[in-house]
Design a protein that fits this description.
Helix content of chain A is 32%, strand content 28%. By secondary structure, chain A is an alpha+beta fold. In chain B, strand 10, helix 5 and strand 11 form a beta-alpha-beta unit. In chain B, helix 3 runs parallel beside helix 4 and helix 6 runs parallel beside helix 7. In chain B, 58% of the residues are buried. Classes of the chains: A alpha+beta, B alpha/beta. The interface between A and B is large, with 59 and 63 residues.
């Protein structure tokens, strides 16, 4: 999943013909004030944290931008400051298009009270409109959403147009979420997106050449991503490598239930197919975290365990001060894999629980 | 007996000339899974593992009477492969492919349902009725036929569940892997209903994950069943789900963490396991 900052999300909406306020990334400023100066962060609650400030003129905007640029919001440093022309707001609405995983459909969420955190709005006041993927967004749904938000008034037509464009953007951009909160009706009756939260589907990158995610993990997690695997960093002792999300979570559960702690989890995500040298690079990355113990939990019934064994052997031979390692090998060509690892003198077992217990004991220094 | 696939199934592999497709074909033939053909556009007339290759699913269905498909095509081709399969009246498809865009998953799921088909996946490790038919990345030699059903999103965790059951002398009627992606075709509830109706299944293991509410739909089905259901929800210690954003917080409603799901099964009177390696003993006490 790729998260966009507000200004990126708005640029995406604008490309699809949705009105947004004139704006510029600081130090540039929009042509005319008054201004709203806005922290660009992924964390919510930036308004309460002082990350959104009004300014009357360019000097005020620069002052506000400097202050906001120095903030950390919810532990996240402000990534950029975006300055917009301030809107004369008459009404603030809530509109979101979200891919609902349980329904397996896009759902449109609409509420006539926008501008506040959506969690603060009573559940029953938010109207939900599922979209059947076989027919897409049709006129009856568009009209129903416009009636909820526009109340049958003069803004209905503009709201319907924005909804149609937002749905087209959701599909065309492979977005999982487009949330416009607030969707503003100005004193002049213009309907305009005053904020934008957009989540894009990373798996659809092949349809969108050049689409890259903004780094938002630790250095280790980003390096893992660059190697085509999923890395999650913790503060404990054992760095563990598994294949499959389920096995990864189960290994975490098992180690913690048995009294151990995790330094990092690596989910191979099919990276075995890229060969031993690539796996060795991944093991090398795990070693950079200086874990007390390495745990490899490999149970393959389709891919070849020898690939993983060779990768481990290459990586551990390349370093002098490798920590102790435990290897759980079970499945295809386990005997061959065991032979590859034999010269390294590692603890090898086919039993999941025993591997975890041994890794925990080694981490405590009592094995 | 078993559910979903068996001796009577007539199976196709979509992408049979690729590396993964070819490995599956050879293994199926070696272990007696009823593979009747494969599909690879432009490769019609060839054979792989002794079965004929067709250019289209429609031609393959016409010639072989195929009703099930295992698809190991590239992610870019997955949506079209599923449209093609269900349009040609394939009844059950396993989409093994990982990395399928979620909007494609939404569309293939809707089309499969409209056609009355069963879609396992995307990112499904497959379906196996041991000794009868194997459309899964589970080795035929690693699982014994028996009377316990397994339904899981994860593929690799079914290996552990199978081993844990085997340690108690218990074999498996059918393993159904729903797929690890957020949007998949068939859910827990539909598979549980099939196990309930199956004379060859005495109890069911349900393996869940954090995120989404599909396990709760499974729980509602389990309440209506006469057969015991034992649950393990992996990720009891997983960091809070990052996947869904702001609107997800409201659309998700109640808690979708692994501990919340496990607690819900236990509160409803079902046996819930803390560890995947505990599943075998828990089931053995009930059957």
């Amino acid at each position: 999943m790729i998260r966009l900052l507000e200004h990126e999300g708005k640029a995406l909406l604008a490309r699809h013909g949705i009105a947004i306020p004139p704006g510029a990334l600081f130090p540039a400023l929009p042509a005319a004030g008054p201004f709203m100066v806005k922290a660009q962060v992924f964390q919510g609650g930036r308004g309460k944290a002082g990350g959104i400030r009004p300014a009357e003129d360019a000097a005020g905007a620069r002052q506000a931008a400097a202050a906001i640029g120095a903030l950390a919001i919810g532990g996240e440093r402000v990534r950029a400051v975006y300055v917009e022309q301030r809107l004369a707001v008459a009404r603030e609405l809530y509109l979101a298009l979200q891919l609902d995983r349980d329904l397996g459909q896009v759902v449109i969420l609409a509420c006539e009270e926008g501008g506040v955190e959506i969690e603060a709005i009573p559940h029953e006041r938010i109207r939900r409109f599922p979209v059947d993927p076989l027919i897409g967004l049709q006129g009856h749904t568009i009209a129903a959403v416009a009636r909820v938000l526009g109340g049958g008034g003069t803004a209905d037509a503009a709201i319907a147009d924005i909804l149609r464009r937002a749905y087209n953007a959701l599909i065309a951009e492979d977005a999982e979420l487009i949330e416009i909160n607030p969707l503003v009706i100005t004193a002049d009756g213009v309907v305009i997106a005053a904020d934008a939260k957009v989540l894009l589907d990373e798996d659809a990158a092949f349809r969108h050449p050049g689409r890259k995610s903004i780094p938002d993990g630790t250095a280790f997690e980003e390096a893992a991503r660059a190697l085509g695997v999923i890395g999650i960093e913790f503060q404990g002792d054992i760095a563990a490598m598994m294949n499959g999300a389920g096995m990864t979570m189960a290994t975490l559960d098992q180690v913690i239930a048995r009294g151990g702690s995790i330094r990092a989890l690596v989910e191979l995500h099919g990276a075995m197919a890229r060969g031993p040298a690539h796996l060795a690079e991944i093991v090398g990355l795990m070693l950079t975290l200086r874990p007390r113990v390495l745990l490899f939990n490999a149970y393959f019934q389709f891919r070849n365990l020898e690939t993983v064994a060779e990768g481990i052997a290459i990586a551990l031979r390349a370093v002098r001060d490798a920590p102790p390692a435990v290897v759980r090998l079970r499945g295809v060509n386990a005997e061959g894999a065991r032979r590859i690892l034999h010269p390294l003198g590692l603890f090898v077992t086919e039993d999941f629980d025993m591997a975890c217990l041994r890794a925990i004991a080694l981490a405590r220094g009592d094995a | 007996m078993a559910i979903l696939v068996g001796h009577e199934s007539r199976i196709l592999i979509q992408g049979i000339t690729g590396g993964t497709g070819r490995s599956y074909a050879e293994r199926m033939v070696r272990h007696g899974t009823p593979l009747v053909g494969g599909v690879a556009p432009g490769r019609g007339g060839q054979t792989v593992a002794g079965v004929p290759v067709f250019d289209t699913v429609a031609e393959a269905v016409e010639a072989t009477g195929a009703d099930c498909a295992l698809s190991a095509v590239r992610a870019e081709l997955a949506l079209d492969a599923m449209f093609e399969a269900f349009a040609a009246r394939i009844r059950l498809a396993v989409l093994y492919t990982e990395g399928v865009p979620v909007h494609d998953a939404v569309r293939m799921r809707a089309f499969a349902r409209a056609k009355g088909g069963l879609l396992f996946g995307p990112n499904s490790a497959g379906v196996i009725s041991p000794g009868r038919a194997n459309l899964a990345d589970i080795a035929d030699t690693a699982v014994q036929p028996g009377r316990i059903g397994i339904v899981s999103k994860s593929g690799t965790l079914t290996y552990e569940a199978i081993d844990s059951l085997a340690a108690q002398g218990l074999g498996v009627s059918t393993v159904a892997c729903l797929g690890g992606d957020p949007v998949v075709g068939v859910g827990y509830a539909e598979v549980l209903a099939l196990f309930e109706a199956d004379a060859g299944t005495d109890a069911v293991v349900l393996i869940g994950e954090p995120g989404g509410r599909m396990e709760y739909a499974g729980l509602e089905q389990a309440r209506r069943m006469g057969k015991p259901v034992v649950a393990y929800i992996t990720g009891q210690h997983a960091p809070a789900e990052k996947r869904m954003g702001h609107a997800g917080a409201i659309a998700g409603g109640a808690d979708v963490s692994a501990p919340a799901k496990l607690a819900a099964f236990r509160a409803a009177g079902f046996v819930g396991c803390d560890l995947v390696t505990d599943l075998g003993e828990a089931v053995a006490r009930l059957v």
